[in-house]
Amino acid sequence: MLQPFLFLPVQTINNIKYRVGVVLCMALIFACNKQNNTTSNEGKVIAKVNNELLYSSDIENILRNLPQKDSSAYTKAYITKWADNEVFYQQALNYLTDDELNIDKELEAYKKELITFKFQSKLINDKLDTLVTNDQIEAYYYANSQSFLLKNNIVKVLYVKTPNNIPNIEKLKKLCYSTNAKDAEQLKIMCVQFANNYYMNDNTWLMFDDLKKEINQLKEVPDYSLQNGKIFEFTDETSYYFLKIIDIKSKNTLSPINFEKNNIKNMLINQRKQQLISTIKKDFFDKAKTNKELEIYN
User: Fold this and answer.
1) Long-range contacts of 107-112 (CB under 8 A, 24+ apart)
2) Domain count, the chain
3) Residue 174 included in any domain
4) If exposure means fewest CB atoms within 10 Å of the residue's CB, which of 178, 182, 215, 259 is most exposed?
């Protein structure tokens, strides 16, 4: 239930990988086409699109790792996919202009982007200080408190869900209501034995919307009725639910620091990544100028 020589965001990185993959695949197709036209010992021809041939040897290595009963179906599917891709590719050769078919410059540009990204990642792994202290987290939290207003209600709870026909269910209900520490231990024992789900960590904040996913009846409970100490009991055809609100922080109020701790840690580390790469970039740039490796002409 319960980054940069420029610092490249995840979406940009994925775009780079996708574009490089596309271009590399196209380059591979060119290479394979050339090879197919000159190879004579590839085994039996099993499919043909104009002058392009698919040989039995192209799929033999794959078939070795498949059960015999699956090989026929896989071979048929592989041939169909190869033919579909090859027909489409040959249509592209006829449709695109010579300039559009020339991918050398594009491939080189994407190659540089990918190598730059890999270098950046290695520098970060080798040099980044990822130790974030509690004092640093607190300083960031209080200096940026307006950035930590809650967008949803969060709660600390005691939550138990059990089948509604377990033995001694009345005892379990009584233990749920109790505030005695020994009873809490007894409740945990019963939950381990019988509960479908339970949550007894009163030091951790949970999203109230996540509890609504667990207990459908909570969707009908208005926010204004939520308060410390509030108890809800529900039953349906199969289950009994007990929920006690131990503490609540309402949306649009300041989020507790321990709820934001991991977010702040990630923010601080991301800031360090940007600063690290920026500093290294500047150092490389200055050295290149000093060593006359870099010259900028007016």
Assistant:
1) 107/23, 107/24, 107/27, 110/16, 110/19, 110/20, 110/23, 111/20
2) 3
3) yes
4) 182
